[in-house]
Write a structure and sequence with these properties.
Layout lengths: L4 H11 L8 H19 L28 H8 L5 E2 L2 E2 L7
Antiparallel strand pairs: 1-2
């Protein structure tokens, strides 16, 4: 796939982004390099791998979820709040 000004214009419209005129050539060059890299990946033979192949033995390691109790941090933060109660910020209601 070749990146040109027409394709860049379509990408700008789809992404709701605006690229400055002086940056367009640089963006086209960078996108072209990315596409060349992806094309190189297509040359890899992955037929011997299962669809669920992973480099990790036994799946993703999980970390034990242990809550950390540091009430002094909350107190330091809340002392700058205009209004707080029971370790919570008090804010004006926005829905009646």
């Amino acid at each position: 796939m070749q990146i040109d000004m027409a394709l860049l214009a379509k990408l700008e419209k789809l992404s709701h982004l605006r690229v400055d005129e002086e940056k367009k050539d640089e963006i086209i060059s960078q996108l072209s390099e990315i596409l060349e890299y992806v094309e190189n990946l297509k040359e890899l033979d992955t037929s011997d791998f299962d669809s669920y192949f992973s480099t990790l033995e036994g799946g993703t390691p999980m970390k034990e979820d242990i809550p950390v109790q540091q009430s002094e941090v909350a107190q330091k933060i809340l002392k700058y709040a205009p209004d707080s109660r029971d370790d919570f910020f008090i804010v004006p209601a926005i829905i009646n």
